[in-house]
Amino acid sequence: MVKAIFPGSFDPPTNGHLNVIERARRIYNEVFVVVATNSEKKTMFTPEERYDMLCEMVKDWKNVSVRLCDTLVVEYAKQVGASVLIRGLRNIDDFSYEFDLSMMNKTLNPDVETVFMPTDPKYFVLRSSAIKELAAYGGDISSMVPGVVAEAVKKKFSSGIR
C-alpha cells in the first residue's frame, strides 16, 4: 500500500490543487493533503479555514484525507508511513524551486521519494497570490477555485480583509 502526501499552504486552495489531488488519488492507495502551518507566513486564511475548505473539496474521495502539519514535511511523512511526496508544478520556475527542495528533503529522509506532477494545462496560470489579488479588486475567481473557496474569499474581502 503506497501512501502519498501532498503538502502546501493552500491559501487559498485552487482548481489546480484539486486537479493534482484528484489525479494523485487514482495513483496512490492513500493521499494525505497536508496544510502546512507556518506562523512566519502571512496568509489570508487560518490553517483551520484552509483545512475546512479542503475537507469540503475532497469529501467524496475515500482515499483522501486532509491534515494540518506544523513540522517538516518529511517528518510528517514518516509519522503517517508515507513514502511519496507529491509536488505540483506549473512551470519551470516551480520546477527549479521544487527540485532544490526535493534534494534537501531527500537528505533529511532518504525513504521519501518526491514525485513532480505537472498540473493540467488549463490550470497552469493559477497562483493563489494572483487569485487573491484579482479577488481584492472585485474580479471573478469562480472559474479558478471551487465554489466553497470562492465564497470564503468573497466573505473575507467583504469583511474588510486586504
UniProtKB/TrEMBL annotation:
Q: What does the record list as GO biological process?
A: coenzyme A biosynthetic process
Give one Pfam family.
CTP_transf_like
Enzyme Commission number(s) from the entry: 2.7.7.3
Q: What does the entry list as the binding residues for substrate?
A: 9, 41, 73, 87
What reaction(s) does this enzyme catalyze? (R)-4'-phosphopantetheine + ATP + H(+) = 3'-dephospho-CoA + diphosphate
- Report keywords, A-Z: ATP-binding, Coenzyme A biosynthesis, Cytoplasm, Magnesium, Nucleotide-binding, Nucleotidyltransferase, Transferase
InterPro entries recorded for this chain? Cyt_trans-like (IPR004821), PPAT (IPR001980), Rossmann-like_a/b/a_fold (IPR014729)
- Has UniProt tagged this entry with the keyword Transmembrane? no
Its EC top class is transferase
Give the residues the record marks as binding ATP: 9-10, 17, 88-90, 98, 123-129
Q: What is one cellular component GO term in this UniProt entry?
A: cytoplasm
Q: Name one GO molecular function term.
A: ATP binding
Q: What residues does the record give for site: Transition state stabilizer?
A: 17
Q: Which PANTHER family match?
A: PHOSPHOPANTETHEINE ADENYLYLTRANSFERASE (PTHR21342)
Q: How would you summarize the oligomeric state and partners of this protein?
A: Homohexamer.
Q: What does this protein do?
A: Reversibly transfers an adenylyl group from ATP to 4'-phosphopantetheine, yielding dephospho-CoA (dPCoA) and pyrophosphate.
NCBIfam families membership: coaD_prev_kdtB, cyt_tran_rel
Q: What is this protein called?
A: Phosphopantetheine adenylyltransferase
Natural source organism = Candidatus Gallitreponema excrementavium
